[in-house]
């Protein structure tokens, strides 16, 4: 799992069906509307009106079983408030299956109200589940939080299932779940699961025909958004041809949503060279230029690192209009680093001006006199999609008010999510850069002037 897929905690947008969840404005709940895209809302699994924090550890040990995996949730955290924290494993009551070594349960969490009961539900993968080539499970939200679960799909010999994202891909008003290998179409019910599942491919015939036996096709990341503005969610994928464990040419694939579901993938952007992906390794979707078409934001760590925005349009992604912000550009605050900029990316409205901003992980940046401490750079959106209207903000552990002592940010794990539903996204970032997984997460408020350490709080990652 790439660091960005730590969370739909890192998901910038989530497509939600009407009648939905999380206190949507009444305008978005009118009868007859299709699906809408809501930028940066945190999940509310227990329906108390406060955003919840998802803390997955698919490498975690459960009952002595290495890498069985689990997901923890801090319900309603906030400054000065001790959150109620719960851990869900495959040995939890009502969760299908059982914990086994190397299941990697709890990875790539994504959320939405799948059964329409007003509580957010959580979808996670288990890429090592030996009942197939991975498994997708929905954990059901309710008044007491997550409880029980239903299998959405198991992988088969035809392909694995992983990296779930949510959207209304067939435009019927019900949330669907797409992943590598398949789509589970809603409505999704607790006793019956999805209404139907369809296999999908994230490959293209032309590239499959040219591939040698030594080359492996790898899906690096998925994102969902209405890129062509037709009211149905589209699926986006970054995939590459890897050889001997090294990444090769990367492709940006576009799978258009339609009345019958997702259509076949179309390659819209090729890699820039044989060993340096041109689109990047992590993608998010959101309408940065306010034209009604979701745009694609990518993090590309190659070279000195860059953030790229591929605009959406009537026919889908428009790579000919791509905008790029490189680490060496003046808009990115000093100091510059030789490696580690754009290792991760998140999208949300930090300052509440109605324009989406972009947070970028700068994982080896120097902070003060401390080398390789890590930071997050916030690039400001002004509705143009260019992210260069004003200088970015550097956010790090030494910001006044951040309650960290003796550790720094793990900027591979970041998100922009509105935790308190005030219209501004908080920055959520992992802590302890030397751990494979963060040992906790800090939440820094968004204000009209940017991210602040005032009112920031940190939640330790629990262990089962």
Automatic annotation (TrEMBL):
Record InterPro entries: FG-GAP, Int_alpha_beta-p, Integrin_alpha_N
Organism: Streptomyces fuscus
Name this polypeptide is given: VCBS repeat-containing protein
TM ranges: none
Keyword vocabulary terms for this entry: Glycoprotein, Repeat, Signal
